[in-house]
Amino acid sequence: MSEELQDEVEAINSIFGAGSLVQAGEESDIYVLSLPEETVSLRLQFPPDYPAVPPSVLSTNSSGGRRGLGARDLELFRGALGNIYQPGFVCLFDAIEELKRLQEEAGLNREPSLEPKGTETDKEVAARQNGSTCSSHASGLGPEPPWVESDPFVELKSTFVARCAAVTSPDQADQYVQHLLASKKRIRDATHNITAWRIRGPNGTSFQDCDDDGETAAGGRLLHLLQLMDLWDTMVIVTRWYGGQKLGPRRFALINSAARDAFVKAGLVDDSAGSKKKHSAK
Q: Might you report a single GO cellular component term (predicted)?
């Protein structure tokens, strides 16, 4: 397995959940891709010189879905690969996203997407463009939030740092984000500040939201991580400083790794296996 493919397998399983992309057998160049929110899985063959040469989509397996879904997704994914692949660049994450787009065009999506649209709110634009104003009002945003900070994760000069905190309401989560941006110029000036939170409300209600801050799909992936770990009353913000070299799908694995490290340091998950330790932050 090439280093690029190894990184891509790790990234896909980090983004979409363990077992999303698995080797079909020992020392095999064939992998099984379980498509997100689908009953269909695809068998892909990666040549030894991938990504210089594209993968091949061999076949599909459908379980529990409507008749014909497998053949439909097989053709759509082949089309997605054809649209996305560029020699020398890993392509699987982008191909999955392109598949979603093609499904939407064909009116075939069966589940609403959790992914944000990648646009900033007016308030976020104002916070980004008026740094001095934000700083001058930091004292009016309340006390310093009880952040637990991850170790920095650095790759190709890009740096990722996560912070998590206990929250009890959507307003509090928003206040914590605004406090961080207003009081920390280096964070405010970062390339991306990706956030996600899940909160249990009264009478069985619940709230969850995310913001990718221009890093398309990252907020949704971060929220998915909270869901997989069954973490509640918790928010996380991952800050990225871009180092000038593109990381491809590897960046999503680094975002999730930084978030997990913050959860571990906060005592929300076990360090050894990354398994859940508690349901909510304290």
A: ribosome
